[in-house]
Each structure stands twice: as structure tokens, then as C-alpha cells.
Amino acid sequence: MRFLTHDELAELTERKRKGEQITWLKANGYHFAIGANGHPRVLSEHVQARLCGGSMIAAPAALEPNWGAV
To answer: Residue 59, SS3?
Structure first.
């Protein structure tokens, strides 16, 4: 498991500022975490899977009420 470097993240997002990178990642559906320094952390394997047409990480299930509890 490896995270993108700052340079790789800037190349992917075409943004240098962390806030703009986060906005781009959200808008384009990339999964990421925020590091202690406030910069986004993206797994290189996730980017590779996305660029190859797949997704390593399943999309979150749609939230629906628990009808059985009603």
C-alpha cells in the first residue's frame, strides 16, 4: 500500500493547493483521507483502479429506512 506523493497528487488533480485538491477529489469521486498536515492522502492503488476503469473500493450503499423496524 502506497499513498500518492505531493507531486503525483498535484499531477492527478492539476491543482497545487490542498483545498483545491480536496475539492477536485470530491468532485471526481476519489476516496481519500486527510492527513495530520491537512493534505489529502490517496492510495495509489485506488487511482490505478479508477484510471483502468474499475474501482477497488465499493461505493457506499444507498441509505434507506429500515422498513422492517416500522
So the answer is: coil
